[in-house]
Design a protein that fits this description.
41% of the residues lie in helices and 16% in strands. The protein is of the alpha/beta class. Bound molecules: guanosine-5'-diphosphate.
C-alpha cells in the first residue's frame, strides 16, 4: 500500500492555476475531446504531453504509474474514456463500466502519487437521473434512478466525480470535474453502430444524398430532446476551468441549445443539401426523453460558447468530407 503523502506541488485549494510554463498531459489526445483540447492548448504558453495507446495502456495500473512518474506532468486533462452512442452503451455494458473505471482510477491515483498539481476529470450529462427536473442542475446528481441504456458508463463517471472529491478532501489535491453535454465536431466517431446521433446522422444523410436514396432511417421516435455543444467550444471551456475553477462540485458545460432528434436531422439535411424524407425505426430505443443541462454556474464564472449548431454542423461536415476516405478504411 502506498502511504498517503502530500503532493509535492500542492497549492492551497480554491486558487487560480497558472498554465504558463506548465506540462499538461492530455490523456486521450486522439479522441474527439482530447484532440480539441490539444488544439486549444496550442494557444497557451504551456507544453502539451501526449502518449498513444500503443505506448501506454491506461487500463494497466502499473504502466500508468510508471509513465506518470517518468513524465511528471503539472496538470492532467482526462479526456481518455470509452464512449459511444445509445446502442454501443447498451450492448457493451461490461466494457463500458470496466474500462472507464480502470482508466480513471489509474490516472487519478497515479496523479496523486506523482504530485500532479491539477487534474480535470470529464464525464457527461448521462450522470444525471433519467427523470430529473430540466434543465439539469449539478445538485441533481444521485437524486434518482439512471437511464438504463447508459447506466454502466454513468456509474463509472459518477465514481470519477466522487474520486476527485475524495482526493481533494483527504489529500488536498486540486482535482476538479466538468460534465459536458452531448458533443460533436471534427474528429468525431462516424461509426453507425458505435457513434452518437449527430455524427451518425451526418454520415447517413450524406450517404443517402450521394447514393440518391429518397429516405433515411432514424432510430426511435425522433421526439427526444438533446443539447449539443461544439467540441472546440468545450475545449475552450475546459482550459478556462483548468485555470479558473477550483471547487468540490462538478460543473456542467452546455450550450443551452436544445433540439429534437427529428429537427436535428432536418438541420443536418439542410447543411448537407439532402431533400429526401425521414422514417422512424421505433424498434430502436429513444433513451432519455430530454437532456438539457443547466450551465448557469459556468455562465456566472464568465464563460459562454461561441458556435451555433448550424455553423458547428457545417464545420463538422467539412471535416467529414476531408476525411471521408480515411474513415472508410
Ligand atoms: P444518448 O444521447 O445517450 O441517448 O445517445 P445517442 O446520441 O446515441 O442518441 C440520441 C438519440 O438519437 C436517441 O433517441 C437515439 O435513438 C436517436 N437516434 C436517431 N437516429 C440515430 C442514429 O442513427 N444513431 C444514434 N446513435 N442515435 C440515433
Amino acid at each position: 500500500m502506498t502511504e498517503p503523502r502530500p503532493a509535492p506541488t500542492s497549492r492551497p485549494l480554491g486558487q487560480p492555476f497558472d498554465l504558463t510554463g506548465k506540462r499538461v498531459w492530455v490523456a486521450g489526445h486522439r479522441g474527439l475531446v482530447g484532440g480539441a483540447v490539444v488544439r486549444r492548448l496550442a494557444r497557451e504558453d504551456c507544453a502539451v504531453l501526449c502518449v498513444g495507446r500503443e505506448d501506454l495502456d491506461l487500463t494497466r495500473q502499473q504502466a500508468v504509474e510508471a509513465w506518470m512518474e517518468a513524465n511528471r506532468p503539472d496538470a492532467v486533462v482526462m479526456a481518455a474514456a470509452l464512449v459511444g452512442g445509445i446502442k454501443a452503451n447498451d450492448r457493451r455494458s461490461a466494457e463500458f463500466i470496466h474500462q472507464n473505471l480502470a482508466v480513471q482510477t489509474n490516472i487519478i491515483h497515479a496523479a496523486w502519487q506523482a504530485g500532479v498539481g491539477k487534474v480535470l476529470f470529464l464525464g457527461s450529462s448521462c450522470i444525471y437521473p433519467r427523470d430529473v427536473a430540466q434543465p439539469m442542475r449539478e445538485d441533481a446528481l444521485l437524486s434518482g434512478p439512471l437511464e438504463p441504456t447508459n447506466q454502466w458508463y454513468a456509474i463509472a463517471k459518477i465514481a470519477g466525480i466522487r474520486m476527485a472529491q475524495a482526493y481533494r478532501r483527504q489529500y488536498g489535491c486540486d482535482y476538479i470535474s466538468a460534465m459536458p453535454t452531448n458533443l460533436y465536431g471534427p474528429g468525431d466517431n462516424f461509426d453507425l453502430d458505435g457513434g452518437h446521433v449527430l455524427p451518425a446522422l451526418l454520415r447517413k444523410i450524406h450517404e443517402a444524398k450521394v447514393e440518391g436514396r429518397g429516405e433515411v432511417v432514424l432510430w426511435g421516435s425522433g421526439a427526444p430532446l438533446r443539447e449539443f455543444l461544439y467540441v472546440d467550444d468545450l475545449a475552450d471551456a475546459l482550459v478556462f476551468l483548468l485555470k479558473a475553477y477550483s471547487a468540490d462540485d462538478h460543473i456542467n458545460v452546455g450550450s443551452g441549445e436544445e433540439i429534437t432528434i427529428k429537427a436535428l436531422a432536418e438541420t443536418i439535411a439542410g447543411v448537407v443539401g439532402y431533400e429526401g424524407r425521414f422514417v422512424f425505426d421505433t424498434t430502436m430505443p429513444d433513451g432519455t426523453p430530454r437532456k438539457l443541462m443547466d450551465s448557469g454556474r459556468l455562465a456566472a464564472l464568465g464563460w459562454r460558447p461561441a458556435t451555433d449548431l448550424r455553423s458547428g454542423i457545417a464545420a463538422t461536415y467539412r471535416w467529414f468530407l476531408d476525411n471521408a476516405e480515411r474513415l472508410r478504411q
